[in-house]
Amino acid sequence: MNDPICSSPPDEGAIPPEPAVDAAAEAQIVAMVHRFYDLCLADDLLGPMFRAEIPELEPHMAIVADFWSHALLGTQRYQRGTPYSHHTHLRVEEAHFDRWMAFFSQAVGEVLPPDLADKAMKRAAHMTISFRMGLLPLPEPGART
C-alpha cells in the first residue's frame, strides 16, 4: 500500500526523470539544427563567424540539438548552463541577430511540425531579446532607436 503520510518527500535537488523519448521529434530537431547550420555556414555574414568559433562542427551541432531537445521536449541531456554564457565573447551587431533569426525561422519552418515550430520560434524570440540586451552596446542617452 502506498501511504502518502508515511512516504518520503521528493528529493528537491534531484534531476527529474527523462520523459519518454519521441524518436520522430528528436530526429526532426536534429534535422532542423543541421538545416540551420547549413544556412548559416553558407552565409557571407554568419558563415565566417561560425567557422571561426566552431572548430568541430558535428560535436557542436549535437550539443545544440540537445539544447533544443531540452527546450522543446523537456529532455535532460543538455547540462551546459544557459546558451548566453557561451556567446558573451562574440562581437555581434544587429544584422547578425536579424540573419540568425531569419535562418532559424526558415529551418524551423522547413523541418519541424507546427506544434514544435511554434514552441521553437517563441523560445528563439525570447533568446534573441535576451542576447540583444546583453551583447549589443547600449544606445547613447538621448539617441533615437
UniProtKB/TrEMBL annotation:
Report any Pfam family annotated for this entry: Bac_globin
Q: Which UniProt keywords apply?
A: Heme, Iron, Metal-binding, Transport
Any one GO MF term held by the record is: metal ion binding
Instruction: Return the protein name.
Output: Sec-independent protein translocase protein TatC
Q: Which organism is it from?
A: Novosphingobium nitrogenifigens DSM 19370
